[in-house]
Amino acid sequence: MLTLLINIKELLQIRETSIEKVSGEAMAVLPSIKNAFLLIENDTIIDFGPMENCPKINADKTIDASGKMVLPAWCDSHTHIVYAGNREQEFVDRINGLTYEEIANRGGGILNSAKKLNETSEEEIYHQSKKRLEEVIRQGTGAVEIKSGYGLTVDGELKMLRVIKRLAADYPITIKATFLGAHAYPLAYKENHAAYIDVIINEMLPKIAEEHLADYIDAFCETGYFSVEETERIMKAGQQYGLHAKIHVNQFTAINGIAACVKHNALSVDHLEIVTDEDIEVLKNSETIAVALPSCSYFISIPYTPARKMIAAGLPLALASDFNPGTSPSGNMNFVVATACIKMKMTPEEAINAATINGAYAMGISKTHGSITIGKKANLIITKPLNSFYELPYSFASNLIEQVIINGKVIV
Ligand code: NIG
Ligand code: FE
C-alpha cells in the first residue's frame, strides 16, 4: 500500500539521518522543505523531498496537502491516562484557596485517585481510559507513555498496567508503560515507608516483570513523597529487571534528586519546575533528558520549567502533557506546545523539536518516531491550511489539525 502526500506547503522536522535528540542551540533549528511530497509504504516513510522530485507513480492513495503543514505526530512521553473518575472537587477547592499540598494532606490528591481506582473494575477503567486515548490521538499524538501509580496496592498497580497493555494491543499508536508504584505512600504505610518500598520491590516488581507489563520505572521524588534515598532504592530495583528510570522530580522543591537520577542513568527527569544551577550542571554531559510539563504548571499555578536557562546551558528539553486527573486533566499536546511558547518563551521551532524528536527520546523511541526520516513510522499530523507553522502555537485555542496519520493510515 503506497500513500503519497503531494503539494505540502511545508514539511516540518525533516532529518536526513536519524538523530536521537536535539540539544541547546540546535533546538532552534527545525529543518523543513517547502512545497514538498512524502511517500509512505504501508506504515513507513520511504521517501520525501521537494515536489519537483516527486516520483511519477500510481499510489494507492494520494492526499493533496496544498496550503497545509505536515509534521511528525506528537510524542507524549509522560502521561497518567489510565485512571478512574476525576477530581473536579479538588479543582474547585483550589479556586477557593487551598493548595495542591493542602488538598493532598487532607487525603485528597493521589490517594483520592488511588481509592477510586481500587474500587473500579478493570473493564470500567479500560473504558474510561480509552476515551482519553482516542481524544489525544485526534489531537495529534502518535506515541504515548502511560504510567501506573494510582493503584498503590499489588492488585491496583497490576490492574492499571494490564489496562495499559490492553490499550497498546487495541490501538495503533505506540504505547510505553511505566511502573509508578512509588507515586505516594498509602495511608497504612504513612509511618513505615520501608515496608511499602519492600512491597514495591518484593511483591509488585517481580509480578510486573513476569507479565512483561512495564518498560520503565518511575517514582515521585519530592518532599513529603519519596526521598532521594528512597528513589534510589526504587531505581536500583528497577534496573535489576531491566527497567530504565523516568523520574518525577523537582516539581515543588529541589532536593538533589536530579543528581541521583543522573547517577543511575535515568532516561528522563520530569517536571523540573524548580531547578537550581547545580541541577543544570549535573544534567550537562549526561544522557538524561529533562521533560517539562507546562499544562501542569498552568493548571495548578506553579512555576514553569526554566526552559531558556536550560537551553542556554546546552541541554535538550522535551515537552509532555502529564495528562492526569490532579494536575493536568488534558493530554492536548497542541496546548502544551503553545503554552511552552507563550509562558516558557520557547520559540515555535524549539517547542516542536521538544514535542517530537525529544519527546521520542524521552520514551526511548527516537529510532522510529519523532522526525520525518526514511525508515521511520509514518505517524503524521496534516494541519488545516495555515499561513505558517507559527500559527500552531499562535492560535493556541484553535484546533488546527485536519488529519492524523498513524502507521500510514488516516485516523482522523
Ligand atoms: O505528574 N506529581 C506527581 N504526579 C502527578 C500528579 C498526580 C496527581 O495529582 O494525581 C504529576 O503532576
Ligand atoms: Fe506526572
Outline the structure in words.
The chain is 35% helix and 23% strand. With 412 residues, the protein is α/β, with parallel strands linked by helices. The chain folds into 2 domains: 2-74 and 371-410, Urease, subunit C, domain 1 (Roll); 77-361, Metal-dependent hydrolases (TIM Barrel), CATH 3.20.20.140. Helix 4 (122-138) crosses helix 5 (154-170). The longest helix is centred in the middle third of the chain and has 18 residues, at 193-210. The two termini are 19 Å apart. Fe (iii) ion binds next to loops.
Keywords summarizing the entry:
15 helices, alpha/beta, Urease, subunit C, domain 1, 8-stranded mixed β-sheet, 412 residues, binds fe (iii) ion, binds N-(iminomethyl)-L-glutamic acid
Question: What gross morphology would you assign?
Answer: globular
Distance between the termini: 19 Å
Question: Helix/strand/pairing class, anyone?
Answer: alpha/beta
Low-confidence runs: none
- List the bound ligands: N-(iminomethyl)-L-glutamic acid, fe (iii) ion
Q: Number of DSSP strands?
A: 16
Count of spatially separate domains: 2
The fourth-level CATH homologous superfamily of the largest domain is Metal-dependent hydrolases
Instruction: Return the CATH class of the largest domain.
Output: Alpha Beta
Strand content: 15-25%
CATH topology grouping of the largest domain: TIM Barrel
Rg of Cα set: 21 Å
CATH architecture of the largest domain: Alpha-Beta Barrel
Number of helices: 15
The major sheet is characterized as: 8 strands, mixed
The helix fraction, in percent, is 25-40%
Mean pLDDT: 97
